[in-house]
Amino acid sequence: MSPGVQVDCERVDVLNLLSNVLPVVRIVLGIMLFSSISAMLHAASFTVQPESAKEGFSITEQQAIALFYQRNLHLIAASLNIDNAEAQEIIAGAIPNPVFSFTLQELTPKAFARESRHLAVPAQVPQIQQLIETAGKRRLRIESSELATEAVNFDVQDVARLLTNAVRHNFYNLLLAQKTVSVANNNLEHYLELVRVNEIRLKAGDIPPMEVVRIEVESIKAQADRDRAQAELNQAQADLLLLLGWPEDSPEISAVEAWPEAIPEIAMIGQEELVRGALDRRPDMRAARVRIAQARKMLTLAQRQIIPDVTISAFYARDQGNQFANTGGVGISVPIPLFYQQKGEISQARVGLNSSELALRQIEQSVRTEVMKAAAAWRSADTIARRFEASVTGKVEVLRKSQETAYRKGAVGVLELIDSQRSYRAIMLDYYTALANRSKAWADLLMAYGEEVKEVRNSPRYLTDQFAQFPEDRPEFRQAPGNQ
């Protein structure tokens, strides 16, 4: 065989070998490429997942209020006034300390001279004095300070009453935002399903292209509504967490979807009875009454200051120069109210009493107005919400489903379908808004009526017992710097 023919045969064998090997190589390379891409995606998902996954928890209204008592700095600052009042109580009840004095008498320069050593030493007179308050002044001071402490306790409870209402309002705002997102998601899902069905019907020639475009436009609007609702939800979460005093890196919080139930003992009674109950139980009214009693005590104390206090004394004298070297004695001293009879203090105390009585009348008028407005607002909001529950919410879902069925069968046009979807969204949002308004009106009525508030100073121990099921052992609770 010639060399040229041999070379051609070798080329043919190589080409045949390559043609047999290349498909296998392609498969192997494809598998390697697919494995590499899968590993990269898995690594990327493993890396991103902890950052994107944000652990959250649900919270009830009572748990939100309990957490507020634990963490809110305003109530902690207000509770410090109770400690200050209790310190004033101790000061008011203090008994004056006795006064000890030591006196050397008959001192002369010659008494310490060498030639005078045989003479008597200077007289030594130790003495003790004790002030005795008369006319029950100390008892009046103690009673006045005790009343002041009681009034401060009522002040703190009144602060808690107001701030508890703020917590409730923020909780209901969060619940309303959650319902709004739910309606927006439901509306978007329906539009996306209609877009999918219309694309199939368009391919089959059942509907014109314009109907598909209109549904797609409405789905885009529904997506925008969902985005706005989500932004409002984020804002409501931030507002509640801020009021609760939560740290910056807080978990995602959600409200347990349960609207408050009205208490029949409050909701069913008349307006005048509500006013009388509020006047009896509101902490601001009780604080004003206590301050009147305190002002009367202070007026009585100022009047009794005219009666002078008595200072008694006892002494022992050691004087070698007297006939009796060791003697003793007692004494008494009383200031004489000759030029000043405490008229300024009495006038000042009387002005304080008049101011306290005027403050009580002003608070009473304010309480009447608040209760009347809150009761009227509650009854109006309750009526609106009941109308929705009785006649609207059950029918609107049936109407929307019937319109969708009729549209798919060609009985109604796309405009009627879009109108039914818009009506459903608007009615459901109005319904949830009515529920939120009723809940806020109920919270305002509880605040105006004077809902009983636990003593703020003892709230941490109380919350530990009553809300043991609250997830305090979760990492976000343990690691939160504001929860130390």
TrEMBL record:
Belongs to the outer membrane factor (OMF) (TC 1.B.17) family. Signal peptide: none annotated. Pfam families: OEP. GO terms for molecular function: efflux transmembrane transporter activity. This is Outer membrane protein, cobalt-zinc-cadmium efflux system.
